[in-house]
Specification:
alpha/beta; Arc Repressor Mutant, subunit A; 43% helix; 8 helices; 4-stranded antiparallel sheet; Rossmann fold; 5-stranded parallel sheet; 2 domains
Length: 223
Amino acid sequence: MRLLLIEDDAVLRLSLERQLEAEGHRVDLAFDGEDGLFQAREYPFDMAIIDLGLPKVNGITVVQTLRAEGRTLPILVLTARGSWQDKVLGLEAGADDYLVKPFEYPELAARVKALLRRALKATSDVLTLGALSIDFSAQTARLNALALDLTTFEYRVLEFLVRERARVVSKQELSDYLYPRDEDRDSNVLEVLVGRLRRKLDPGGALPPIETLRGRGYRFTWQ
């Protein structure tokens, strides 16, 4: 899962990043509320962990803004404040859960798992687009009821394009999703991945599932 962590405490931020990534999550970092809002608007996240005491834009405003814009990703707020009024304020802003500092990492990990599990149950784990079905929970895909043999990166390309099928996805955005920390990216690799995925989804070339829009990016066409 891809998580957004907005936390201005450098020590805590680094610790949480390492531990969450050790559990298999991909973690994007923001140091203040302004940058956190920008990233949440620009990139697809499965969940956000937001400290309330942020510089530039406070955590409550970040949560309120995301909810006002219709973003439904699960949000866990972190607060150093212990009063029940502050907890209620965070929940009323639109957060799904809260955790009071200081806390032990296993408690945060349990909250993260619970919120992600709840979010998956809120939407169907299996999406069917014609002959194609994708099980997001199991990270598998089937075509005409037969399992597709996809590499990890091919599946991630497929999942991202399918989730964003209502719009055109730029090559830069897809590259950022696949390689968030790789500065030396090769666009040829991305084109190869998309080409292989096309052939696996449509071996005969009858109905191409992925459209290339020159100068703009890719769009998944099956509905």
